[in-house]
Amino acid sequence: MNNFLISPEICLILKAFRDSNSLREAASLLNCDPAGLTRKVQMISQEYGFLEKVNNRWQVSSRGLDLVAWVEESIQTQHHLISEKSSLRFASTMWFFESQIIPNLMSLKKKLGTDISLSMSVPSKSFDDALIGGSVDFVIVCHPPNSPEIEHRQLINEKWIIVAPSSWKSELKKNFHEIIQDKPFIRHTDINQDLLIPNIIIRQNDIVIDNLIGVRSAVCSNLGWSIVPKILVRRELEEGRLIELHLEVPIRDRKICVWWLRNRQSSKKIAHKICAWINETC
Questions:
Q1: How far is CA 168 from CA 8, 24, 131, 157, 216, in A?
Q2: How do residues 48-69 score in pLDDT, each as one tens digit?
Q3: With the CA atoms of 178, 184, 189 and 190 taken in that order, what torsion angle do they form, in degrees rounded to the nearest 10?
């Protein structure tokens, strides 16, 4: 590992001489003995040339002044780092942020500590790459990671259900299967509905959407019915804007998961708090 070429003590001595009019005043700023400081000043002058005598007084040379400017910037940066809040960066899907994390953000901050700053993003690359690459600290998704570098914990089931607009409620009571087969199906691009609901013949898709928020919006807008995670539409079901159609959807292996880097021991304690929060809110 590379070390600093100039020690922090020498940097502070140069700054003290820049800010004082005499060796004694510099010693006072450094809270040290003038005699001991004299020996260090002579060494700095001989080995680095950062101090030079002008009219029998030690002054910082032009090269030394360049170093002092860097020292001041470094001191300010340290103060900023120490004073600013700790930051945690989360990655998840947009629908999970919108339906689960953001509405419960204050309880998450309370669980983690109110002095922590949180940032959230949907990575442009894979979740594995985002975590390993260091652009995020934690991932919350509904599947386990692929990389052995990532540790994870599986939590509650991500239950999927069939939903329809509430305006269909009375109509569906008459002849459920015939009516649902004649209604438009809103399909997410990643879902093969023939595998999920093999006993229902689905008419040609009227709308195909590449995100679950759009699927939910389409169903709420009375455009058709679809298959979605229950936590995505929990509020709409409670408010009566959507109804659940009680057909079994065979998605059994998906669980909400929290990921973190295996070699970061400090992340494990925080991950346990995040897991506890998910179990409480989901």
A1: 74, 89, 43, 28, 16
A2: 999 998 888 899 999 989 999 9
A3: -20
